[in-house]
Amino acid sequence: MNEMKNTMKRCTIGCLMSGSLFLAGMPTAWAETVQIGSLVAGQVEKVMVMPGQNVKTGQLLMTIDDDRYQAKLKTARAEVKLWELKLADAQIELDQALDLFDRTVTAKRELDAAQLAYDVVKQQLVKAQGNLESYQAWSKYFVIKAPVSGKIAKINAPKGTTVYKEIRR
């Protein structure tokens, strides 16, 4: 017997997707379920699809309010800028300490303290940059896209509802 699979899937946002298996031209009940969830919590801002609508892989299904995320991102950017300025100041202090040490005006202890202060600030900057990169990486999770082509079966999260971060075990 010749088997053919129909790759059309049905989707429920929050989301179930199913399809049909055809055996020798005869449709047989077969369903594949795909659940589409959110990796972030927030209020659904827009739903771009309706039940019964066909969607393609990567098509935008809904957006989640990201105002709180944008505020955190802005704070993380400011934190990086702050540590960049502190690093520039620590570099000036280190250069001065090195100059005074080279002219034997101060002891090595002052140079070591300036070097330590510079190193601490540099690591704080690296930490702030990592935090910023982490926030930037999460930006894509405020839009939910279709992972596969299919048909929307049901929308469990209409505009205005709150979605909760998926808990993976």
Low-confidence stretches: 1-13, 15-30
**Would you list the SSEs in sequence order as H and E?**
EEEEEEEHHEEE
What is the CA-atom radius of gyration, in angstroms? 27 Å
Classify the secondary structure makeup into a structural class: alpha+beta
Number of domain units: 2
Whole-Å distance between the termini?
41 Å
Which percent range describes the beta-strand content? 15-25%
Question: Order of strands across the widest beta sheet?
Answer: 8-7-5-10
Sheet of most strands: 4 strands, antiparallel
Number of helices: 2
Percent range for helical residues? 25-40%
Give the total of beta strands.
10
Average pLDDT reading: 81
Global shape? rod-shaped
Can I get a quick summary?
Helix content is 40%, strand content 22%.
Layout of helices and strands, plus pairs?
Elements: E1 3-5, E2 10-13, E3 21-23, E4 26-28, E5 42-47, E6 54-55, E7 60-64, H1 67-102, H2 108-138, E8 143-145, E9 150-155, E10 162-163
Parallel strand pairs: 2-9
Antiparallel strand pairs: 1-3, 3-4, 5-7, 5-10, 6-9, 7-8
Helix pairs in contact: 1-2
